[in-house]
Amino acid sequence: MTEKTNKLNRQEKTEKIFSIASNRGFFFNTANIYGGKAGFFTYGHLGKSLKNNWESLWKKYYLNLDENFHEIQSNSILPENVFKASGHIENFNDPLVECKKCNSRFRADHLLEQDGIADAEALSIEEMNNEIINRKLKCPKCGGNLIDARQFNMMFPIEIGFAGDRAYLSPETAQGAYLTFKDEFFATRSQLPLGLAIIDKVYRNEISPRQGFFRLREFTQSELQIFFDADRINEHENWKEIENEILLIKFANKEKIEKITCKKLNSSHKIPKFYIYHVAKVQKFYLEIVGIPKEKFRFRELNEIERAFYNKIHFDVEIDFGTLGGFKEIGGIHYRTDHDLGGHQKVSKKNLSVNIDGKKFIPHVLELSFGVDRNVFMLLDIFFNKKENNTILKLPSKLAPIKVAIFPLVKKDKKLIRIAKDIYKELLQEWDVSYDESGSIGKRYARNDEIGTPFCITVDSDSAEKKDVTIRNRDDGKQKRIKITELRDVLRKLISGEVSF
Length: 501
Ligand code: GAP
Prior knowledge:
The protein is of the alpha+beta class. It folds into 3 domains: about 50-80 and about 155-370, 2-Layer Sandwich (BirA Bifunctional Protein, domain 2); about 95-155, Herpes Virus-1 (2-Layer Sandwich), CATH 3.30.40.230; about 400-495, Anticodon-binding domain (Rossmann fold, 3-Layer(aba) Sandwich), CATH 3.40.50. The chain is built from 16 helices and 26 strands. Helix 9 runs antiparallel to helix 10. The longest helix has 19 residues, at about 45-65. Glycyl-adenosine-5'-phosphate binds next to strand 11, strand 16, strand 19 and helix 12. Glycyl-adenosine-5'-phosphate (GAP) binds near residues 215, 219, 367 and 373.
């Protein structure tokens, strides 16, 4: 048979990934037995493990950027005043359009994009309404006339307790960090920069949670809020380390992706050094730590209309998704100024300024914000490979949900089973490993390739006598014999990437 690699079209690839996701336990529609609900997914055992691994990698990398970066945990339910102060009640809206006839609701910018307007998100409500009229757009479901587009607030309102105090499910983890800032500032010896990271669930009442796993109503964010002195925005103590690094950026209102050094981005585009330093670190995370191919990664600078209401500088992190037909946002680097602390100071009437060496000021915030679920989906999309009739998920070992699978070659051989189970129990102490004795060896390899298990170990008739096993490498199918006593040590080096196969 001729080798057919990655020849699936977009729809076939999407169907294949979703079928593997639900058949093997990555993710499922929530409440499937009741017909499910768009925008809600449940992680199965493999998906949860992949998500945990991604979160651990994220924490290890971003918390190590500075000794004063720490992880905290806040709440999903926050009182109304928090979102009055942050501006979410007034501004956290999406443009909603409704059908007069069947009452179906759509995002106006999505309808316009489907009709050929690129970046319709950047249009004002009036411009959207004009385009809808000019283009004679009708309801995609029943062909009925559309009512004028209006702003729809995306937060889920709730009531607390008997008194029914108004609150909201938080649409971003960020507010928890702003509310805790002053306490943590004192608890960490009153120094800036101070970084507060939160990984948690957030909630958005998306009008059209299309694109399957991508636009959810309940999802996880990993966000790092870096509080700093705005007078020092054009410096970073480690600037020299990154100044010559080349960044891949699609600038606002430009079509081409430019390769530009950090130094040039600072001198010609006037982007401050403190901001650029963190852009370079985000790029390093994706290209070097996660291993995303360069051509599938870029930053996109958002213009004044596109960027979030709280941002002064806003670069999105974008990945070229085969399943979604192009570059899509998975994260963002946001210069939020003193928008949030200033807002909370005003509404709460509590002093949120700091005093450092006699200088009193409200710190500014640089936010590194990522959608964890989009990143998990990115891993499935980017590392998915098709080979002949099988698929291989070439996940980096450190992210793979199962690190090692152990098989006795022959199912009925009690001696082999005992050796294989002993190895399984030993490796289980250190990693997520699996034991599999059903089906041919070929099928067992294929099942593990499909879920991204980087190494398979086979115990065969020689193993009892020679005290060794075969270890197989997922990505090229190569095999080596290895002494059982050396197995754990060798695997440790292979999984961490210290040595290659
Ligand atoms: N605190 C800033 C903030 O929340 P955002 O651009 O609204 O910024 C950050 O969201 C990230 O959260 C996005 O880059 C994206 O990865 C993820 N995200 C946003 N909306 C999402 C949704 N409906 N479903 C899944 N992920 C989403």
